[in-house]
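By convention, the token line describes the chain's fold. To illustrate:
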Amino acid sequence: MITVNNGCLSCRQPLHGRTDKKFCNDYCRNTHHNQLNCDGNKQVRNINHCLRKNRRILESLLQSAKQITKVSKQTLLYKGFSFHYFTHIQTNKKGCRYCFCYEYGYLLNEDEGVVVVRKRTGKYRTDEQGTDE
């Protein structure tokens, strides 16, 4: 076998085999790449955790058949909801901007109330009377 001058990029052991070999085994290759991506993955993992938590909270507030409900902002904060994290924003015909965590959205009112909605096949409920966008 040919011994390569450069050692394994992970454990620094001498390499045997192909001249362009960088790692001695799969474990070292995975360890090296996990270390390279750890900072970026940690940030993404934390954001995804916040988004999933927000979605679970919004989902728990809507009854199975209901598409819309009103709650106080304090209720959401008490449950651990973070208003800083959402997946997208949609504006309805009335100009109201709904922030969404996947298919569940919310609209902040001036009176510290929050309207929670569930998106349905391209549309979502925009008011308490149940008119669609």
Q: What stands out?
A: Strands lie at 3-7, 14-16, 68-72, 88-91, 97-101, 104-108, 113-120, 123-124. The first strand starts at residue 3 and ends at 7. The longest helix spans residues 26-61.
